[in-house]
Amino acid sequence: MQIFSMDKLTAFSQIITADQLGDLRWPIIACSILACAIIAERVISLATVQLSNYQRNWLQLATHLLVNNQTSCQPGARCFSQSRSLARKAICLLLVHRHQSKTLREEIAAVWLRQQQQKLSRGLKALHILALISPLLGLLGTVLGLIEMFDVLASTEQTINPAMLAQGLGTAMYTTAAGLMVTVPALAFAHALSLWKDQIVHQLETMINQANLMIEGVDTLADDAKTLAAFQPELQSPA
Fold first, then answer.
1. Residue 232 included in any domain
2. Is residue 1 part of a domain?
3. Is the pTM of this model over 0.85?
4. Quick check: is 157 in a domain?
């Protein structure tokens, strides 16, 4: 059994374009178009950032450059300048200031990370605002529809039957349904994109801390086998 038949989907699609929405149809449609544009732009942008961060192991490349004291890449070698990854930019920022104190490097990285966080959050507040405005527009359209319906009923001299009231109330509720159809996906995507942004920022923060320790000579990339091999306590001889 299908949950949504073609008749139901057609009815839902006619809610936005129905004449019952009146003049508030266009603000609701504008909100839906803006929300879709913001969602598409943010999904593409965040996906590009995350894929570029996982494109290479930037910490290993930075370790190689730091150990060999290379100031520029050799011809044909994998170079930091060949990518626009935020992870690469963060590590390059620390390598440029590697002669500064660790505290100063942390302050520089914190300022840079806040700037990137603002860029990654671009459009999310607008999406929250659209999710807030849409149901209010729908509610306003419902109230205006009810007022118009009662004005018509007050001016008619015919007998008012329940069918007329049901039809008028159903027509007035169309705008509320249209507003909620815009609000629910916009609010869901706003929270999901915000969580996605926080995850990327957390990954960048972790990589910055690892790069800072790497510059100080602490290897955070060693696996468990190397760590256990380096830690070999002397066995105490039996008494």
1. no
2. no
3. no
4. yes
